[in-house]
UniProtKB/TrEMBL annotation:
Monomer. One of its GO terms (molecular function) is shikimate kinase activity. Belongs to the shikimate kinase family. The gene is aroK. This is Shikimate kinase. It comes from Niabella digestorum. Binds 1 Mg(2+) ion per subunit. It comes from the Bacteria. Its cofactor is Mg(2+).
Length: 168
């Protein structure tokens, strides 16, 4: 069983993925962390030094590598991962895709604090950040909504989160 967590930056993919892997007793990976380990530098530095296009290429390659080498895992993807190279179709073929459809206000309050770790948000003031989240999440919706499972509730505990994934 492979579970792919997708959704906008700040949705909680990394936060939930780690807990989910632990609870289900299967390996957990964060795609950004795999890319960083492979490159030996942060996502910020990769964007700065190699550019977004290079990052997207590595993102796809490492998505495929970790998938092919694990029949069972939880993979927390970066927010853009499903939106490039038909990656969402690949994930749908290979496992269960779960879209964390976290409300805009929650994303905003989380991302205000974490702008510096996300290259796409660098230099945005609070107002520009809100506008960016609204526009970019609307643009990406066509990919996110192809997930097999959609989670709208951002106030769940782990057991209820798991129940939603397994339709219990
Ligand atoms: N359900 C939640 N409850 C409390 N804090 C959360 C929750 N989900 C995420 N966070 C916090 O919000 C921030 C962004 O979450 P993260 O998992 O990094 O998002 P993503 O990987 O989707 O970009 C982190 O500081 C994380 O600890
Ligand atoms: O939405 C995006 O394009 C990105 C999201 C980030 O991951 P998180 O969604 O975990 O923040 C990371 O992959 C990179 O900064 C680009
Ligand atoms: Mg993350």
């Amino acid at each position: 069983m492979r579970i792919y967590l997708i959704g906008f930056m700040g949705a909680g993919k990394t936060y939930w993925g780690r807990q989910l892997g632990q609870k289900l007793g299967i390996p957990f990976f964060d795609l950004d962390e795999l890319i960083e380990d492979d490159a030996g530098k942060s996502v910020n530095s990769i964007f700065e030094e190699e550019g977004e296009e290079y990052f997207r290429t590595r993102e796809k390659e490492i998505l495929y590598m970790v998938t092919e080498s694990h029949d069972s895992m939880v993979l927390s993807c970066g927010g853009g991962a499903p939106c490039f190279f038909n990656n969402i179709d690949y994930m749908n073929q290979k496992g269960i895709t779960v879209w964390l459809n976290t409300p805009i206000d929650t994303l905003l309050s989380r991302l205000k604090e974490e702008k510096h770790t996300r290259p796409l948000l660098k230099g945005l003031d609070d107002e520009a950040l809100r506008a960016y989240i609204i526009k970019k999440s609307a643009d990406r919706r066509i990919y996110y909504e192809r997930a097999k499972i959609k989670i709208d509730d951002d106030n769940l505990d782990l057991d209820n989160f798991i129940k939603l994934i397994f339709n219990e």
